[in-house]
Design a protein that fits this description.
Helix content: 55-70%
Number of helices: 3
Number of strands: 0
Strand content: under 5%
Structural class: mainly alpha
Number of domains: 1
Distance between the termini: 39 Å
């Protein structure tokens, strides 16, 4: 799922779109990382619900 192109190295090397595909995957990976970081920051900035909610119940 991460890099289906590299399953067949010969075709990946022969593929003229290999560089474009690699760049696209890098962009997707970077975007995923940024989204995860933003989600974590949003969770930290939100009023305390994750660590104190269990205590309140």
């Amino acid at each position: 799922m991460e890099r289906p192109v590299m399953l067949i190295p010969e075709r990946a090397i022969a593929d003229p779109d290999a560089n474009r595909i690699r760049a696209m995957q890098e962009r997707i990976r970077r975007a995923t990382k940024r989204r995860a970081q933003e989600t974590q920051e949003r969770a930290m900035a939100a009023p305390d619900y994750h660590w104190s909610a269990s205590r309140r119940r």
